[in-house]
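Dear colleagues,

For the upcoming journal club I promised to circulate an example of a predicted protein-ligand complex. I picked one with coenzyme A because it came up in last month's discussion. The inputs are reproduced below in full, followed by the predicted structure.
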Amino acid sequence: MHMIRPCDSKDFDSIYSIINEAARVYRGVIPEDRWKEPYMSRDELQHEIDEGVVFWGYQQGAELVGVMGIQHVRDVTLIRHAYIRPANQNQGVGGKLLSELRNQTNRRILIGTWAAAVWAIRFYEKNGFRLVSPQEKDRLLKKYWSIPERQVETSVVLEDQMKDKRFTA
Ligand SMILES: CC(C)(COP(=O)(O)OP(=O)(O)OC[C@H]1O[C@@H](n2cnc3c(N)ncnc32)[C@H](O)[C@@H]1OP(=O)(O)O)[C@@H](O)C(=O)NCCC(=O)NCCS
């Protein structure tokens, strides 16, 4: 049995461990000066939640196996911190979480990730997102994200290609 549900404060430790377990694939791939272990500290995770990131979880039996955050910023919606436990990757969990979240909003949906995380870019492209141009990426990252300049240089932004469907539906 599985279900997708919003996370609450009782899930904090599970979210923390899923993110840090899944983020280990970044090691040696993303710029070395951006990598640390744990990848996201408890304080950083709490800060993200305080800033309005709402995590949704994919629960299998009694356990959360994946999380994905949604954050409404000004006139857009960001998908933040998508992490599936390594043992549960490539089984459709990420795809299901992503469709749940994109159904929650009619706004333009943006996703930022590491330029070097080619598997993640492929995952989003398969799900109907496309990379925006480098100039547009810089503009969007500065407008909607609070990340250091160095991270802007080494990130990409994808947008929902199906964003126009809402005007015809
Ligand atoms: C990226 C991620 C969220 C995708 O979730 P998922 O549940 O594994 O993905 P799904 O099963 O729904 O989709 C499968 C597709 O994702 C990609 N993918 C998922 N896991 C992969 C892996 N271990 N290696 C390579 N590609 C992978 C592939 O494109 C795959 O499609 P394919 O099998 O046809 O090639 C998940 O793999 C993950 O947590 N990765 C590590 C952390 C990360 O990169 N997060 C993204 C932060 S923005």
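Two points we might discuss: The chain has one domain: 2-168. Residues 22, 25, 82-84, 89-95, 113, 117, 119-120, 122-123, 126 surround coenzyme A (CB under 6 Å).

See you all on Thursday,
B. R.
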